[in-house]
Specification:
Blueprint: H1 2-30, E1 33-34, H2 35-42, H3 46-58, E2 62-65, E3 79-82, E4 88-94, E5 98-105, E6 109-117, H4 125-135, E7 149-156, E8 159-161, E9 166-170, E10 175-178, H5 180-188, E11 194-198, H6 199-210, E12 219-224, E13 228-234, E14 237-238, H7 270-273, H8 275-281, H9 289-301, H10 305-329, E15 333-338, H11 339-357, H12 361-364, E16 368-371, H13 378-393, H14 401-410
Parallel strand pairs: 4-7, 7-11, 12-15, 15-16
Antiparallel strand pairs: 1-3, 2-3, 4-5, 5-6, 8-9, 9-10, 12-13, 13-14
Helix pairs in contact: 1-3, 2-3, 4-5, 6-13, 8-9, 8-10, 9-10, 10-11
The chain binds zinc ion (ZN).
């Protein structure tokens, strides 16, 4: 009898924690809402919502406002929102030309952001890890207290083993077999988890949660910089493959005797749509970098025919590959990120005409092509979402830490 009671107690504790998770996840993804909205969204009873929201507010994870609902029938229902800085993700993004860091709180609120440009070709692993750690001190509020941090998320332009954050290869950084998760964890000297993911996989996650793909479950995200990455979401699920290496659509071979690619193969899609290809078409060196790309777009804004033709020709090649991926995956939406979101306003007709020429009518009729809404920061924000996952999955794990943070600050 006694053990049955223990089991029952354990089970109700499991249910309580799952219900807290449902509430926090709803508030995190859909924003502040009334208790009545929470009843409707979670399917929990009114009294359960009252009790659980009470737990979240006394733990400092949520607050309730006295709401005045003018012109709405019934009793006013107070609005519940999460306290952004009660649990914070530290997100890093490693680009070929720059590094960035953000602290992002519950509800996806960006609390602080800092960036630094990096000279081309300086990608020694130790230097990059050191620069990332130093960048934390450049945040407006300084380095966050470890007690407030849930986890660290890192976006990398490379192929990452999701299990342990090993960067198998990042061709445009010149990295092979880099245990980035472990290196960064020891450099930061924090005990929180460090989660490393491919930047485009994180980009599609962020665009799905807060950007151009909200409410759309079949999405191809194509992110262009020097390299070209892809993130796939099918049936609402990210496609990661056996070890996390899937979605490398930039390395889909599209030319039998194409240019050599940084991945070791040749004729990859990246070689005809990446920044190098655009720069070359505009009459610049393939390795003219972010500065060169800015020059091309400045010239395009001024109506320069060579720059406009280079952008359009890149759009044509973008459309060729997209046609193939639309036939293969039947998405509702293609989201163009990074370089391609800048290209889109000038080249949308060229992209669509080319795509139409290289795809089948049935799949094409259902798809839309749109620029990323989160711009170049989509991978950074996706890294934050992944890092916040532990507190979304089990908010009760954070109960008590808020007091500890306050005590620590006043000690
Ligand atoms: Zn390649």
């Amino acid at each position: 009898v006694k053990s049955a009671r223990v089991d029952l107690g354990q089970r109700s504790e499991t249910v309580r924690r799952a219900n807290l998770s449902a509430i926090v996840r709803t508030l995190h993804e859909d924003g502040p809402q009334s208790r009545s909205d929470l009843v409707a969204r979670t399917g929990l009873t009114r009294s359960a919502i009252r009790a659980l929201v009470g737990e979240l507010t006394s733990a400092g994870l949520a607050i309730e406002d006295r709401a005045v609902h003018l012109g709405r029938p019934g009793r006013p229902s107070p609005e519940v929102s999460l306290v952004a800085d009660a649990a914070v993700a530290v997100a890093f993004s490693i680009g070929v030309d720059s590094l960035s860091v953000a602290t992002v709180g519950l509800g996806g609120i960006v609390l602080g952001l800092a960036r630094s440009d990096r000279p081309r070709g300086h990608h020694a692993v130790d230097a990059v890890v050191g620069d990332l750690a130093a960048l934390l001190d450049c945040l407006p509020a300084g380095r966050p207290a470890e007690e407030a941090v849930v986890a660290v998320g890192v976006a990398v332009p490379g192929i990452v083993r999701s299990r342990d954050g090993l960067v198998e290869t990042a061709p445009n950084l010149g990295w092979t077999g880099v245990p980035l998760g472990a290196l960064l964890r020891s450099r930061l000297d924090w005990s929180v988890p460090v989660v490393v993911r491919n930047e485009a996989d994180l980009g599609v996650l962020a665009e799905h949660r807060r950007g151009a793909a909200v409410g759309i479950d079949d999405v191809i995200y194509v992110h262009g910089e020097v390299g070209v990455g892809g993130g796939l979401l099918l049936g609402g699920r990210p496609i990661s493959g056996a070890a996390g290496y899937a979605g490398e659509i930039g390395h889909f071979p599209i030319a039998a005797d194409g240019l050599p690619c940084r991945c070791g193969a040749s004729g990859c899609w990246e070689t005809v749509i990446g920044a190098g290809a655009l720069l070359q078409r505009a009459g610049l060196a393939r390795d003219a970098g972010a500065e060169g790309v800015d020059r091309v777009f400045a010239a395009a804004r001024a109506g320069d025919p060579l720059a406009l033709a280079a952008i359009e020709a890149t759009g044509v090649q973008l459309g060729v590959g997209l046609g193939g991926f639309i036939n293969t995956f039947n998405p509702r939406l293609v989201v163009l990120g990074g370089l391609f979101s800048r290209l889109h306003p000038y080249a949308q007709d060229a992209i669509w005409t080319s795509l139409a020429h290289h795809s089948m009518p049935a799949a094409r009729a259902l798809v839309r092509v749109a620029p990323a809404m989160l711009g170049v920061d989509a991978p950074l924000l996706g890294a934050a979402e992944v890092a916040l996952e532990p507190v979304l999955a089990d908010p009760a794990s954070r109960f008590g830490t808020r007091d500890a943070v306050v005590e620590l600050a006043s000690a």
